[in-house]
Amino acid sequence: MSRHAPTRVREKGKKVTDIIQSKPFWKGVQNVLNVIELFVRVLRAVDGERRSKMGYLYETMDREKELI
């Protein structure tokens, strides 16, 4: 049995490598992280020890929504 991967496996590995090394892939990752960060901010405001007023929460959600 050969120690080398079959050609089909190497081709798939090359495709994955090309995707991961591409600028569009990392731009997409950055966009996802930016959106998640905004959601985390809102969740922290909602889940804080001190309960925030609903008006503040709605304002925070609207502000973050605009950033998205």
Describe the secondary structure blueprint for this structure.
Blueprint: H1 7-20, H2 23-47, H3 54-67
Helix pairs in contact: 2-3
Q: Could you characterize what this model shows?
A:
With 68 residues, the protein is mostly helical. The protein has a domain at 26-68. The protein contains three helices and no strands. It has helices spanning 7-20, 23-47, 54-67. The longest helix has 25 residues, at 23-47. The protein is elongated and about 65 Å long.
Properties at a glance:
78% helix; 0% strand; 68 residues; mainly alpha
Helix content: over 70%
Low-confidence stretches: none
Radius of gyration: 21 Å
N to C succession of SSEs: HHH
Strand content: under 5%
Work out the number of β strands. 0
Q: What is the quaternary state of this protein?
A: single chain
The shape, in one word, is elongated
* Average pLDDT score: 82
Characterize the largest beta sheet: strand count, sense, and whether it forms a barrel. none
User: Could you give the distance between the termini?
Assistant: 53 Å
What structural class results from the helix and strand content?
mainly alpha
| Number of helices in the DSSP assignment | 3
